[in-house]
Each structure stands twice: as C-alpha cells, then as structure tokens.
C-alpha cells in the first residue's frame, strides 16, 4: 500500500518525486486496476492515467483541499489528456471543466453498478439521470453507500467497472448537465 | 407508512394489558382507552395471539394477559435511553417490508440520531447486494438504528465493526453463549451465523447525512430453513431454551450507545481494538478471501486503524481488505 508514504503532502524532505517512486506508484495502480491517480506534494503535482499511461507533472499551485484525507480528489478532466483506451472518447469537442459534472466516491471500497449481481446496471452511458437518482453502490466493510446523482443530465462517461476497487475522491461518473444542452 | 398508527394503537393495547396483568379488562374500556371500536380491539387481540402473545378471554367478558409477552414494543422494553441517545425514540412495527427501508426513508426526512425502527416481522428483509434476510415472525430481532455521526464518510465504515461488537456483547450477555465475530461483522455462535448486519449510508463526498445500521438476530427460531441450516443458527438452537428478545434488544441498544460514545471520544481505532479483542479472526486465522474479482487463501494479520483487515498471502505479500468477505479454512 503506497498510502502511508504518499499521503503526507507538502513535507520538505519528500518534496521531489523521483523516477523510482513514480515507477513503484505505477506498479501499484496497475495491480489495483486504478484507472487514474493524481496527487500533489511539495508544489509538484503528479497525474497518472492507465491505458496508454500518460504521465505528466505540471507545476500548479495546490487548490483548495480543506480536509485531511490521505487521497486528494482528482482534478476534473483536462482537455489535453488523451482518453484512456477502452473508454468512450468525447468526440464532439473537448470537454471542459464547465461541461461535465464529475460524481466522485466519498469512500474507499468496491464499486457496484447495480443493486444486486443479477440486476441490470443502475445507469448506462447515454442515459438521462435526475437529481437523487441512484448511480451505483460503493461498499466498504459491508457499509453500502448508494451514490445518487447530484446533477440532472446525461451520463457521458462511466469510469469504473463492476466489482473494481475504488479510492476516495476517485471519479465514478461524468454527467453533462441538461441545462447545457 | 400505512401501518404505523395501527401499530401505535396495538402497542398501547399491550401496554394497557401489561399494566393490568392480573385483572380482566372489559372490551369497551380498552376500546375507549385507545380510541377504537370494540370489534377493532378484538381484531388487535387476534393479531397479538397470532404473534404468540397469550391472552385469555373474548369480546363478551373482557381480556386478560396470561404472561408478559416477548414483544418488542417500546413500553415493554424499559430502555429509558436519555435524550439524543440510541433508542430514545423507538418505532415499533408488527409488520413492515424492511426496517432498513423504513429507517432510510425516515432519515431522508430528517429523523433524529438515535431513532430506532423495530419490527416483529419483515415481509422483505434485505441483506447485502439484493440478498433476502429470512425474517420469521416474532422469532428474530429485526432492528434498524439511525445514526448521524460527526464523521467524514470515509471514516464511517468502522461503524460496521462497532455494530458487530455490540451484537457480540448483547448475545453473550443476554443468552449466555460464547460468540465470535467474522470480519467485518458476522456474529457466529458454534461457527454459524446468528446475526446479519446491513449498513447503509447516505452521504455526499465530504458530508455524511446518515448511517442506518440494520441488524437481524436469530433468537428463537426452532430451526433454520433448508439452505440456511449449514450456515445459520439461532440462540434458541444453540442454548436449547427460549431467549428473551426484549433482553437481547435492550442489551444491544445499550452496547451500541456505549461503543458509539467510545468512537466519538477515542476515534475509530477504539472500535478496531474492541473488535480484535472479541474476534478469533483478527490474527493468525487461515481464511479464504473472496473479492469482487476473485479469491485466494491467506492468513489474517490484524486490523488497521480504519478497521480494514490485513491478510498475508502464501507468497508473503500483504493485502489490506476494505471490502470483500472471508471464510475460515478448516
């Protein structure tokens, strides 16, 4: 688990990323099937996406993160990042931050796209969803967290597959708000 | 919830009869006390009899309670939880679809922390992932507790360990059996499940609205239906005698309050260490780990501060389980 060492953002002694650390991190992400990961340390942000593995370390200031969780929330999709393989590409123009709303996981756990193994998924790409409509369940230690949509619109992307582990703050769904259409 | 006001009236009827246990209460007196017709009183009496409550008499000469029934009505529980404590408000149903569904609906309408929903019978008892929870009439305890903890959603899973520890304590104290806890919160007696816990949370990314602990305990079942025989048991089946459901429930609610206060005071680590002290699964237990993506064998190696279970695989690799299930390898 990389969390212990990776979590203490901003400590001077840990400020610089070295290649060895990045490689180790990539191995863990691969093993755990985490599709994207981003964190900041000492003013340097690292962002890793699996599937074509785009690694970028732009120098950006820390944005507001007033809670003490180990895993910071990933930033919204930058338009420059090529879509990961196997994910539906946004073909009609690059999606900017204002275009889509990202639904993120409030807990570390397992992602379920349906209420029970034999049931159809709560939602699929292309579905119109309403505020409060269930999207998925995240389970941690038999605590079931039904994630509801907090925006009305079209599901344009699903980042997770059924049964996959999910981290805190990881993007689950991208929803294009209906008032934009 | 259409049955709620009827259930309040039957509770009132039970309370009235319990307070006057040695006398015959005339039907008209009962009718006027609880504000229903005499024929409705008779209908209520029949419903109570169907739940195993022993009541002598009939409409013409009145009714008398033969002995204090083991019904989970608030007036019979004598919990006396203080304001803001778990169980300060108890909603008792003779029959409902699922206490968790009722509690989640109440929570979404703003029900207070500590509100308890309990039913004599569930018609659609739920387990994890759409599974059914066998809810035999008046044999088990079907209870859901609404919590509004001042915790981040990410810190909430430890509450499921807390629930397991509280059930473990309640079962040992009230039934006098030796119990075990399988991670995260299956309470076992004689190696079989006596309890199932379904915890549901309503939360946003950084704000927890409510956690509902749904707890089902097999108390006085005389036997388990076919496919459950191998994996489930009841307190009665293990002890050979009837166990007071009211006593188990009251002990459970008190234990939950105790453990909950401890978590608020000392943090999640407190629940994890209480769990480890009560469970033989905490350390050195050979288990099979079942995850969403496969299964493997491992040996347990303690809990981390969040309550996640560490396991060591055959090749020495350590994993930390946040989800998934374990079963003992014998």
Structure in a nutshell:
The complex is a heterodimer of chains A (181) and B (330). Chain A has 181 residues and is mainly beta. Helix content of chain A is 9%, strand content 29%.
Distance between the termini of chain A: 42 Å
Name of the CATH first level of the largest domain in chain A: Mainly Beta
Strand count, sense and closure of the main sheet of chain A?
4 strands, antiparallel
Structural category of chain A: mainly beta
The CATH superfamily name of the largest domain in chain B is Bira Bifunctional Protein, Domain 2
Count of DSSP-assigned helices of chain B: 9
CATH class of the largest domain in chain B, named: Alpha Beta
Q: Low-confidence spans of chain B: pLDDT under 50, at least 5 residues?
A: none
Bin the strand percentage of chain B.
25-35%
CATH topology of the largest domain in chain A: OB fold (Dihydrolipoamide Acetyltransferase, E2P)
- If you average the pLDDT of chain B, what whole number results? 92
CATH topology tier name of the largest domain in chain B: BirA Bifunctional Protein, domain 2
Mean pLDDT score of chain A: 70
User: What is the molecular shape of chain A?
Assistant: globular
Ends apart, CA distance between termini of chain B: 46 Å
State the share of residues found in helices of chain B, binned by percent: 25-40%
- Architecture (CATH level 2) name of the largest domain in chain B: 2-Layer Sandwich
Order of helices and strands of chain A: HHEEEEEEEEEEE
Q: Could you name the CATH homologous superfamily of the largest domain in chain A? A: RNA polymerase II/Efflux pump adaptor protein, barrel-sandwich hybrid domain
């Amino acid at each position: 688990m990389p969390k212990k060492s990776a979590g203490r953002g901003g400590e001077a002694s840990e400020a610089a990323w070295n290649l060895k650390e990045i490689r180790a991190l990539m191995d863990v992400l691969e093993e755990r099937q985490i599709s994207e990961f981003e964190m900041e340390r000492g003013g340097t942000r690292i962002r890793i996406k699996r599937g074509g593995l785009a690694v970028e370390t732009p120098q950006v200031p820390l944005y507001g993160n007033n809670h003490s969780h180990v895993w910071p929330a990933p930033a919204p999709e930058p338009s420059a990042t090529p879509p990961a393989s196997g994910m539906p590409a946004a073909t009609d123009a690059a999606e900017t931050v204002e275009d889509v709303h990202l639904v993120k996981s409030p807990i570390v756990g397992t992602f379920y796209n349906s209420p029970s193994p034999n049931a159809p998924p709560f939602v699929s790409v292309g579905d119109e969803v309403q505020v409060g409509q269930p999207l998925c369940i995240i389970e941690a230690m038999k605590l079931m967290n039904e994630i509801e949509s907090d925006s009305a619109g079209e599901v344009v992307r699903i980042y997770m597959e059924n049964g996959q582990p999910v981290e805190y703050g990881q993007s689950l769904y991208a929803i294009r708000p209906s008032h934009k259409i | 919830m259409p049955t709620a006001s009827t259930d309040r009236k039957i509770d009132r009827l039970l309370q009235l009869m319990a307070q006057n246990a040695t006398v015959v209460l005339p039907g008209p007196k009962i009718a006027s006390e609880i504000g229903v017709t005499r024929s409705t009183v008779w209908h209520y009496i029949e419903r109570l009899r169907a739940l195993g409550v022993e009541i002598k008499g009939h409409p013409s000469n009145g009714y008398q309670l033969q002995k204090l029934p083991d019904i989970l009505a608030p007036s019979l529980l004598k919990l006396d939880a203080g304001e803001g404590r778990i169980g300060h408000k108890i909603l008792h149903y003779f029959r409902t679809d699922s206490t968790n569904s009722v509690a989640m609906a109440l929570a979404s309408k703003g029900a207070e922390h500590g509100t308890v929903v309990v039913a004599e019978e569930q018609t659609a008892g739920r387990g994890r992932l759409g599974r059914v929870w066998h809810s035999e009439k008046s044999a088990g305890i079907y209870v859901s507790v609404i919590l509004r903890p001042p915790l981040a959603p990410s810190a909430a899973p430890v509450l499921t360990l807390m629930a397991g520890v509280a059930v473990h304590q309640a079962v040992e104290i009230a039934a006098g059996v030796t119990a075990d806890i399988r991670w995260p919160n299956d309470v076992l007696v004689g190696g079989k499940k006596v309890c199932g816990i379904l915890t549901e949370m309503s939360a946003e990314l950084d704000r927890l609205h409510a956690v509902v602990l749904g707890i089902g305990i097999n108390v006085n079942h005389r036997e388990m239906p076919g496919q459950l025989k191998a994996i489930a048991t009841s307190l009665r089946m293990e002890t050979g005698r009837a166990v007071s459901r009211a006593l188990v429930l009251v002990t459970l609610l008190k234990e939950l309050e105790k453990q909950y206060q401890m978590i608020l005071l000392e943090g999640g680590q407190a629940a994890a260490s209480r769990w480890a002290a009560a469970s033989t699964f905490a350390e050195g237990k050979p288990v099979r780990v079942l995850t969403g993506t496969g299964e493997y064998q491992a040996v347990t190696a303690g809990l981390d501060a969040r309550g996640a279970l560490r396991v060591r695989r055959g090749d020495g690799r350590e994993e930390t389980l946040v989800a998934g299930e374990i079963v003992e390898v014998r």
